[in-house]
Amino acid sequence: LPVEGERNVLITSALPYVNNVPHLGNIIGCVLSADTFARYCRLRSWNTLFVCGTDEYGTATETRALEEGLSPQELCDRYHAVHADVYAWFRISFDHFGRTTTPQQTRIAQDIFQRLLARGFLLQDTLEQLRCESCGRYLADRFVEGTCPFCGYAEARGDQCDKCGKLINAVELKNPQCKLCRGTPVVTPTQHLFLDLPKLEGRLEAWLEHSWATGDWTANARHITRTWLRDGLKPRCITRDLTWGTPVPLDGFRDKVFYVWFDAPIGYLSITANYTDQWERWWKNPQQ
């Protein structure tokens, strides 16, 4: 835990996604640099906590589980063990290597959601999504393939075209097909929850100006953030019509889960919480 009067350092690295075997590029790209810094901090006798873990929710896990004939939980259990063994073989010096499919993740993610809801930072709106009547389910981005509306590539996914690189809304695909049964899905309206980012824009901009002046942001990070603000923040959908994910604790949305990009960053908190029940002393303690 943080110690009064000492230098306390919390280190994380990007949570590796769990649906494959890690390779050298994964290790060099995220965990190795964090491990090097953690070793340096310990040599300096700084009080250091280095946490990481596997990112386990989302449609990519569901897709891979279907391909391998496993449940998503079985797939995650298999690949979490593979990841842990690989990093142990490389002697990556995690203090704790966890995962995002834990009761702590559910508790903390739902608590953050409830706080956003209570403070009026969530919106409800209708989205048009592709639904496969044969499978009886709305199709998340990766469960749809079709022809790219921009370049004509015949095997574009419902979120991006791998040929021209453009982002796609699944309902824009020409000749869409369900990846599960190869049936033709239909466009159907469905209710979702959105993070009201425009309401936060003024407060965020003031915080960023202070942070840019006092912190060590890279030029690239500054540029990307300024571009988002220049174009104006838009409401961001935080729910999905899936079964594999953290459940949404709100009447009318209990058949949905949180979108993995809302849920996964909370994994840093929940993984720390699985290491110590006093995790807030690391994450809500700027004085130390």
TrEMBL record:
Ranges in a coiled coil: none
Domain annotation Methionyl/Leucyl tRNA synthetase: ranges: 9-286
PROSITE patterns named among the record's database cross-references: AA_TRNA_LIGASE_I
One GO BP: methionyl-tRNA aminoacylation
Keywords: Aminoacyl-tRNA synthetase, ATP-binding, Ligase, Nucleotide-binding, Protein biosynthesis
Pfam families found in the cross-reference section: tRNA-synt_1g
Catalyses which reaction(s): tRNA(Met) + L-methionine + ATP = L-methionyl-tRNA(Met) + AMP + diphosphate
A molecular function GO annotation: methionine-tRNA ligase activity
Recorded GO CC terms: aminoacyl-tRNA synthetase multienzyme complex; cytosol
PANTHER family registered for this protein in UniProt: METHIONINE--TRNA LIGASE, METHIONINE--TRNA LIGASE, CYTOPLASMIC
NCBIfam families (UniProt xref): metG
Family, as annotated: Belongs to the class-I aminoacyl-tRNA synthetase family.
Protein name, entry field: Methionine--tRNA ligase, cytoplasmic
